[in-house]
Batch of 3 targets.
Target 1
Amino acid sequence: MSTYVLVHGAAHGGWCYRRVARILRAAGHDVHAPTLTGLGERAHLLGPDVDLDLHVQDVLAVLRTEDLFDVVLAGHSYGGMVVTGVADRAPERIRHLVYLDAATPAHGEAIIDLAPVAIREHTQVVDGVELVHFPDTGSSPIFGVTDPEDAAWVRSKLTPHPYRCFEQPLLLTNEAALNAIPQTQIVCSSALHGRDPARLATARAAGRLWEIDTGHDLMITEPELVADMLMRAPAETSPPS
């Protein structure tokens, strides 16, 4: 049995892993899919102080409160920023890092340094908080969910995301221990052309760059494939067939 902690991306919540979590639990694994402060069912906690550091603390609190060690820690999209920060601060708890079509930041980088499109032009200020990814302003097509029923479900769950999280740089303090943690990158084929080849080179050389031909919200559109890769990632050194 493995222990999985699945961290969602911008505007989402733990709800987005519902299908993947069901598959993993049916296979006997322990699964935690926390929702970050200010999002999903925790949207009522949104405020001007919600930032990347707070989201890292959210996940660290889950690890500590639930006494989790030997964890397979996965982050989707913006969640790649969060899981990198978590692994930097608690490397002794992490068995394997998985990036699900996710940001893979270096020290001092913010997600706006990595994002291929400018997103600030789509922000709005609500109650003193600058927000982005409003579900009623066309955000959901970005996430690559094309099935009409799934798209409606996703749109009904999305909550706007604090822009402060996107502009705050991730400051790493334990890079040697972080880099010693085995990592797998699971990417959407359509996104590869926009990725920096240098950031993919290490994963590719190690046989740890795995592709899924689907949209960005791969945990929703291809839950069986994602769950299968998550189960194989801690043990395999070559791409799953």
Note: Residues 237-241 have pLDDT under 50 and may be disordered.
Target 2
Amino acid sequence: MADGEDADAEPQASYRAGCFCGAVEVEVTGKAMFAGYCHCADCQAWSAAPINAFSLWKSDGVRITRGEAELGTFNKTEHSYRKFCKRCGGHVMTEHPRMRLIDVYANLLKGYQHQPTLHANYASKMVSVRDGLPKYADLPAELGGSGEMLPD
């Protein structure tokens, strides 16, 4: 056992995700820092869906395990670097440098039980979701947003 390891500590969970064709694979380890649904116009356009299920992980808990050379990047703004497979175009993850977190799309993570705790960018919603979760106009303050809440 390495110095500083706790013999009674449970092993950290890990999950794998990949692109549509399987050329790119990533692994996340640990626990998502935030999980929820994003309603921003950029996520809507990128995913071609009204809502994006996100899971935000610490950068050091995400690693590319296959196909790093096949991973392309697009950034419309300095806040989000969207990663996709150059072969199939499949979306994989988004790096958020300002938050120091990476969104590995929840629906791609095999075996991951998505437990959303919030809705982000609800002011841009296309559909209303009445689920009792907090609805942020933009982002929670701890993620750099205003923290302004909207009604369910």
Note: The mean pLDDT is 93.
Target 3
Amino acid sequence: MFDVRLFTEALITLIVIMDPPGTIPVFLGLVGRKSRDARRRAARQGVLVSFLVITLFAVAGNSILAYMHIGIPALQGAGGLLLLLIALDLLTGRGETNHPEVEDVNIALVPLGTPLLAGPGAIAATIVFVRQADSIGSYIALATAIVAVHLILLACLRSAGLLIKVFKESGILLMAKIAGLLLAAIAVQLVASSVQGFVSGA
């Protein structure tokens, strides 16, 4: 039977970790000054990348980590360093490029798809829920929760265009700087959690 408890627990946990409303300022900071079509494409590709990454770790996460001898703290550290580089680009304005179509794809992959949406926390939570699943109904419930949270993410990112009409160009530029600060803070927290994980596991 469909495991309602696991579905509810997984959905709420992933929503809290992935924070769909909280991704809107960062998303606008990354692509807010692009065209409507480019924003919609970036939102769609970013959510798709996140879904594929989460699904991959749901199916083979334990095997991948065990085979490569990688722990969750290592994932947190790598994700934190990657986000810190993106944050510095946002804060200094060095993220411009002469190839916007390439930049759109890159933003959808990194940092939007991963590690911002499909970050170490979401990956770790998914692996934990997979370990809890013990029946076909449990696996279906977890899969449904993963699909549902990504539909919510897509809806939030696609609605970000409404904020552009309110904040205009100057507001989006300011939001990019705020997004850089937020990403830097998230990056520092991930690195700190990574160090804490290594120390406690030593």
Note: The mean pLDDT is 84.
